[in-house]
Every structure is written in structure tokens, then in C-alpha cells.
Specification:
The complex is a heterodimer of chains A (about 450) and B (about 290). By secondary structure, chain A is mainly α. Chain A has two domains: about 1-180, no CATH class; about 185-444, no CATH class. Helices cover about 85% and strands about 0% of the residues of chain A. Chain A contains 14 helices and no strands. Chain A has helices at about 1-10, 15-40, 45-80, 85-95, 95-135, 150-175, 185-210, 220-265, 270-305, 310-345, 345-355, 360-395, 405-430, 435-444. The longest helix of chain A is centred in the middle third of the chain and has 49 residues, at about 220-265. Chain B is of the alpha/beta class and about 290 residues long. Chain B has a domain at about 70-95 and about 110-285: P-loop containing nucleotide triphosphate hydrolases (Rossmann fold). Helices cover about 40% and strands about 25% of the residues of chain B. Chain B has ten helices and eleven strands. Chain B has helices at about 15-25, 25-30, 85-90, 115-125, 140-150, 155-165, 180-195, 210-230, 240, 265-285; strands at about 10, 40-50, 55-70, 70-75, 100-105, 105, 125-130, 200-205, 230-235, 245-250, 255-260. In chain B, the strands form two sheets. A six-stranded mixed sheet of chain B has the order 7-8-9-4-10-11, sandwiched between helices. A five-stranded antiparallel sheet of chain B has the order 1-3-2-5-6. Classes of the chains: A mainly alpha (about 450), B alpha/beta (about 290). Chain A: Belongs to the ABC-4 integral membrane protein family.
């Protein structure tokens, strides 16, 4: 089946672009930080420099791997779902599930390898840039030479290929499995979500138990906020379903036929929405929490008259880099899953148009859905973020809310809103170019 | 049941000229507005070509016809005869290259999709082979959707009455996935009826159904003509389905190629066979298609 895989990648490269892009970006980031390990391990590097680099590389490496894994998994799952028709065709032609699995996994491995190979060049440059940043900050001695070796390449290729192969395997297993046994998965989901919420609440509350001047203080609320975001993200679809039961009437009143259809669509499409809500909640929650906590911390250090230590600077740089990575990857995931979810609905839009919906009304449905999704994502993400910020601010300073004002939060929200509305409406507009009657035939 | 109304479906055919030609004369058209409501659908020299250059295919070649209100007409023809194109052009789902389409006396404009949609949703109902119901809406919601989209008041009692009439009064809250094919098609018929359209187009409505459900659906379509006074245009390749109609129009190579009143399945099947022969002959000597 490998020949099928190679052929399939070669003939339709466009389809693999999303996976390639996330594998590429993922590998760049992992290799960049991996190269810090290589640099630190080189002979003649002093202990402080070495430690600075090793800590950053480990923290971001672990964090980043997880995000890269999620991003690749999300793009791959979407890709496999879009190919349901091709997979059905192959099965009818006599391919066993194992053969199909080998084909899809093979393809993903090929794409991931390509992404990782492309990533080497940018990662070498990025690694140097990062090292310069550390040197400028005085965290690494000026004479340390950049290195790019086994750790960088190994971790980069390893994460990209493993994530792709693993995600492809899971996605194709879901696609080739006949019969539906969903309820068990739903329950496991709810349990996992609740566990994340409990752990997150615990993390946030632990903040109060720690001494206000403790250096490690920010770890508890930050991780608490992240866990809360994950928990909300996992539980969001069913929460949204319940919320929409209440909102049905008002929405139809405000949004007309568009709002009416949106409320009904969203209520019954929980599983698909999870893919969109998850990156949005995580993006909002983590970005808000990390940026504000870092801001409060920096203010506190300045105000208490302490000189910023190397460690403080390390943590600050790290936090900002982590936020950067999260922003980039959440955006990729968000755009990808929204694009896929919307273009996948071409047939549904066709049916709406045949039932008498004008193109404007279809865009209205999509627009209202995007608005509801954005609001849900932003509210839950903000709750998670604030849950981390308030305890930290209370314990670190004598205020309740941080003194930075809402500008950062507004910026985070603006990015999420623009990305969500832009992708949904843009994709829907393109989908509407197909005549309605063709759109329903293709999907049927 | 009352006897089938005499059908005056008019085809641009020579031997029908005495009665039918007047539909097409200019003076007649000017006189017509007073009796406008009696005509549900009219096509005047409608042509449609797909593709360009050597690969161009003439799907419709100057089709002219008129269907009176309250008629049940089947459109038949071999594959590639232009049946689907005829339906799509007549129903405003596709724009003809030339010619005019009038529904209930009003001309379909070549405006934007939004304009065409608004024209369509007030005057035309659809029933498709694949039902095309929205999976997230219940039976009742699906049925009232065209009214909501048109911004009209949804008369709950009327929606329910129609659904009861098609035999789904007990299943208002079901989703399409919970219904059989025949039941889904009946929802589609109810949805087509709800706006009181001038014409209902049914495109192979029984194509995905078993014989028994197919019979029910065809009977229901005939009933809507009798009871609601609807006008139904049924596009099909199945002679049995066509025999439910009051009359049959035959289509070959994008042109009208015959007409049959009070059809039986046997007569339709026989005509179809000859149609195939004549199309083959015509293609062989590339001459004009002889009319019936």
C-alpha cells in the first residue's frame, strides 16, 4: 500500500498542505529549542549558561511537543474525515482496514518527514536567534557558540513523525470502523473533562497556600488556568448544547431564519464543534492567564526594587515564547478545523439553498454559528484565565485585579474573533460558488 | 376520484398547431394576462449549452412548452436527453442561455442568486430523489423551513395539517435519520406544499424507494394535484411512475419529441423504446428529429 500512499501525496499535494504546514512549524519550534540542548552540551560552556538553556529547552520542548502533537492530530483527523468517500471506495474495491490504515499512516509519515526536512534550515536560524536573545538578556555567556546536532534533529523528526503516525492511526481506525458505539466515548470524555477541571481548581486554589514572596508562585495559577482551559474545552460541546436549549427562542427573534437554523445546527453537532472550541478556549485561557500573570510578576519585581535575576528573565522569556507558540498553534488548529468543518458542509448549504435560503441567509447561519462559538469560547477561556490571574494577583500583591488594564485581554479576544469569523465566512462564501443542485449531488 | 383533466400541455409540434399554436403567437401572449393564473409554467425557446468549443454539449435546444395550472405532467426521455437540464432551467436552479421561463405568468429574471432564490421560494416547490431534508431539523421544522426563510408567518396548524395529510402527523418531532425513505420523501412533499407554490418539480422522487413506498409517494403527488390544485412536473425514467401523471412529455436530444395523454406504463415504455430507436437513427444520418 505504500505505493498508493506515495501516489496519493504526489497527485494531490494541496490536500496535505495543512498537515505539512503543522508538521513543518512544529518541527521548527521543537528543533529550535532542541538545538539549545546541543549548544549547552558543547564543551567549554559554563554552568549558568548551560542551565539556562537546558531549562528553557526542556520546558518549551515538553510543552511544545504536546501542542505540536495536538496540532498535527487535529489537521490529520480532519484530513482523514474529508476522505471518507475515498476510503469507502477503497473498501468496496477490496482493501482491508489494515491496508487502508497502512496507506493513510504511510502518507502521514511521508508528509511529516517532508515537513521535518523543510524545517531544518529555519530551525538552525531560529536556534541562533534564540541563543542571541539569551545572550542579550545576559542569561548565556557571550562566547558560547551555537550548535545544531543530534538532540535538535532527533527531537524534531521524532515528534513530527510520531505525532503524525499516531494521529493518523487513530483517525483512520475511527474512519474504517463500521457501526457506532459512541456513548462510552462520551462518558470517558465527560470524566476526563471533569478531572481536568478538578485538577485545575486545585492548582488555582493552591496559590493561596503558598507564601506571597515565593519565586515559584506563578507555576500554580498558570498550570491551574491551563488545566481549567483544557477541562472547559473538553466539556464545552455539551455545555453549549444545554445553553442553546435556553437561547433558541431569543436567537430566532434576533437572528431571523439564520439564527433559527444556527441554534438548531449547533445543538446537534457537538462532536464537530469540539474541534473548533478546543483551540479557541485553550488559546484564550492560556494567552490571557500567562500574559497577565507575567505582567503582574514583572511589576512586582520592579516595584519591590529587586534586580531582575537571570532566572526571572528566563521565566519571562519562556512565558512569552510559550504564549507565542500557543498563539501560533491554536490559530493553525482553529483555522484548519473551521475550514474543514465549513467546507465539509457544502451539501448542507446546498439543501438550505434548495429549501429557499438565499446565499445571504446561508452566510447568516454560518455567521451566527461563528458568533455563538466565539462567545462560548471566549467566555469559557476568559473564566479559566481569570481563575488563574486573581489568586496570583491577590497573593503576590494586595490587589485583586492586575493593574495592566484590559488592553491585553481585548487583543487576545480580537485575534480569536477575527480568525473565527474570517475563516468561517470566507470558507462558506467560497463553498457557495458551487450551484446548489451540484452541491447536494456531490454530498449525496 | 374525478377523471383526469384534459391536458393541454403544449409542445412546439406541427400537428398540434391548431390548438396549441395560439399559445405561442405574440398577439395571444398580449391577450393572455387576464387568464394568466390558468397557466402554471411556460417555457419559450429555452436553450442551454454546456461547455465550449469542441466539447460543447447542447442539453436543451429551443424547448417551448406550456403547462396549465392543476396539471400533472411527467417528463421522460433517455439518459442525456436533457430532462434534468429542463427541470433545472424551468425551476430556476440553472440559467438558460436563451429563451424565457414564466412561472404562474411571471417571468424569471436572470438576476443574482438571491433574486432567483426569492423568485423560486414563493412560486416553486421541489421534491428530489435524495430528499434533501436538513438533518438537524425535525419533521415539523423541516416542513416549515421555507416559510421561515421567506420571512412569512409560520402557521403551525397548517404545517401540521399538511403533515397529517401526508401521513406523518404522529412524527412531527422526529429527525430525518429516524424515518424510512418513503417517510422522508413524504416530508419533502409536505415541505414543497407548504408555500402553496405555482409549480412543484419532482426530480426522480421514487428513484431511491422500494416499489411500495414509490407507489405511495406517486399516489400522494397525484392527490396533491387533485386536492390542492397543485401543478406537478415529474421528471423520471420509470414508465410506471410516469403512468401516474395525466400526460407525458418525451424529450430526446434536448428537444421535445412527443406527447402522450392518459398514459399507461405499457404505452410509455413502448414510446420510450421507439424514441431510443429514432434517436439512434437520427444520430446516424444526422438529420432533424421527426416529430410524432
Amino acid at each position: 500500500m505504500l505505493f498508493l500512499a506515495v501516489r496519493s501525496v504526489r497527485e494531490r499535494p494541496g490536500r496535505f498542505l495543512a498537515t505539512l504546514l503543522s508538521a513543518f512549524l512544529g518541527a521548527v519550534i521543537i528543533m529550535m529549542f532542541g538545538s539549545l540542548h546541543d549548544t549547552a552540551a558543547a564543551p567549554g560552556v559554563d554552568e549558568v549558561s548551560s542551565e539556562s538553556m537546558t531549562i528553557s529547552a526542556s520546558v518549551v520542548g515538553g510543552y511544545g511537543s504536546l501542542l505540536v502533537f495536538f496540532a498535527i492530530a487535529s489537521t490529520l483527523t480532519v484530513g482523514v474525515r474529508q476522505r471518507a468517500e475515498e476510503i469507502r471506495l477503497l473498501r468496496r474495491t477490496g482493501a482491508t482496514p489494515a491496508q487502508i490504515s497502512r496507506m493513510v499512516v504511510g502518507e502521514s509519515a511521508v508528509v511529516a518527514l517532508a515537513g521535518a526536512v523543510l524545517a531544518v534550515g529555519p530551525a538552525v536560524l531560529g536556534g541562533r536567534l534564540l541563543l542571541d536573545l539569551f545572550k542579550d538578556g545576559g542569561m548565556v555567556a557571550a562566547h558560547v557558540e551555537p550548535a545544531f546536532g543530534a538532540m535538535a534533529l532527533g527531537s524534531g523528526f521524532g515528534v513530527a513523525v510520531l505525532a503524525s503516525v499516531g494521529a493518523a492511526f487513530l483517525a483512520v481506525r475511527r474512519a474504517t470502523r463500521t457501526g457506532a458505539h459512541r456513548p462510552a466515548r462520551g462518558r470517558a470524555r465527560t470524566l476526563a473533562g471533569c478531572a481536568a477541571l478538578v485538577a485545575g481548581t486545585g492548582g488555582v486554589l493552591t496559590t493561596y497556600a503558598v507564601d506571597g514572596t515565593e519565586e515559584m508562585l506563578m507555576a500554580f495559577p498558570a498550570y491551574g488556568a491551563i488545566l481549567l482551559s483544557v477541562g472547559f474545552a473538553v466539556l464545552a460541546p455539551s455545555l453549549l448544547g444545554r445553553l442553546l436549549e435556553l437561547l433558541r427562542g431569543p436567537l430566532a427573534l434576533v437572528g431571523g431564519a439564520g439564527g433559527y437554523l444556527s441554534a438548531r445546527n449547533l445543538r446537534r453537532r457537538g462532536a464537530e464543534l469540539a474541534g473548533v472550541l478546543m483551540p479557541m478556549i485553550i488559546f484564550t485561557g492560556v494567552a490571557t492567564a500567562t500574559l497577565y500573570i507575567q505582567g503582574v510578576e514583572s511589576d512586582w519585581v520592579t516595584r519591590s526594587g529587586l534586580e531582575k535575576t537571570v532566572e526571572d528573565k528566563n521565566v519571562e522569556t519562556l512565558n512569552l515564547v510559550v504564549v507565542g507558540i500557543i498563539v501560533v498553534f491554536s490559530c493553525i488548529m482553529l483555522v484548519n478545523s473551521l475550514y474543514a468543518a465549513t467546507s465539509y458542509r457544502s451539501g448542507e448549504f446546498g439543501r438550505q439553498r434548495l429549501a429557499g435560503a438565499t446565499p445571504g441567509q446561508v452566510l447568516g447561519v454560518v455567521g451566527w454559528e461563528a458568533v455563538i462559538l466565539t462567545l462560548t469560547g471566549l467566555v469559557l477561556g476568559t473564566v479559566a484565565g481569570v481563575a488563574g490571574i486573581i489568586p496570583f494577583t491577590m497573593v503576590r500583591t494586595d490587589q485583586v485585579l492586575p493593574g495592566q488594564g484590559p488592553a491585553t485581554w481585548l487583543a487576545v479576544i480580537a485575534v480569536a474573533t477575527v480568525v473565527t469569523l474570517g475563516t468561517s465566512l470566507g470558507t462558506a462564501r467560497r463553498t457557495l460558488r458551487t450551484p446548489a443542485i451540484e452541491a447536494v449531488t456531490v454530498a449525496a | 376520484m374525478c377523471p383526469p383533466t384534459p391536458v393541454r400541455s403544449v409542445v412546439g409540434m406541427a400537428q398540434n398547431a391548431s390548438d396549441e399554436q395560439r399559445v405561442m403567437t405574440m398577439s395571444d401572449r398580449e391577450r393572455r394576462p387576464t387568464t394568466r393564473t390558468a397557466e402554471a409554467l411556460r417555457l419559450v425557446s429555452v436553450s442551454k449549452v454546456y461547455g465550449t468549443g469542441d466539447s460543447a454539449v447542447t442539453a436543451l435546444d429551443g424547448v417551448t412548452l406550456s403547462l396549465p395550472a392543476g396539471s400533472f405532467t411527467a417528463v421522460m426521455g433517455p439518459s442525456g436527453s436533457g430532462k434534468s437540464t429542463l427541470l433545472q432551467c424551468a425551476a430556476g436552479l440553472d440559467r438558460p442561455d436563451r429563451g424565457r421561463v414564466l412561472v404562474a405568468g411571471e417571468e424569471m429574471s436572470g438576476g443574482s442568486e438571491a433574486a432567483l432564490t426569492k423568485f423560486r421560494r414563493d412560486r416553486i416547490g421541489f421534491v428530489f430523489q435524495q430528499y434533501n431534508l436538513l438533518p438537524t431539523l425535525t419533521v415539523e421544522e423541516n416542513t416549515s423551513l421555507p416559510l421561515r426563510l421567506a420571512g412569512r408567518k409560520t402557521d403551525r396548524d397548517r404545517v401540521r395539517a399538511i403533515l397529517t395529510q401526508v401521513g406523518l402527523g404522529e412524527r412531527l418531532g422526529h429527525l430525518p435519520d429516524e424515518l424510512s425513505g418513503g417517510q422522508r420523501q413524504r416530508v419533502a412533499i409536505a415541505r414543497a406544499l407548504v408555500t402553496r407554490p405555482g409549480v412543484i418539480f419532482a426530480d426522480e422522487p421514487t428513484g431511491a424507494l422500494d416499489t411500495r413506498s414509490a407507489r405511495d409517494v406517486l399516489g400522494l403527488l397525484r392527490e396533491t394535484v387533485r386536492l390542492h390544485g397543485s401543478t406537478v412536473v415529474l421528471v423520471t425514467h420509470d414508465p410506471v411512475a410516469a403512468s401516474y401523471a395525466d400526460s407525458v412529455l418525451f424529450l430526446a436530444d434536448g428537444r421535445l419529441a412527443g406527447h402522450l395523454s392518459a398514459p399507461t406504463a405499457e404505452a410509455v415504455a413502448e414510446r420510450m423504446t421507439h424514441l431510443g430507436d429514432r434517436v439512434a437513427e437520427r444520430r446516424a444520418d444526422n438529420g432533424p428529429l421527426m416529430e410524432v
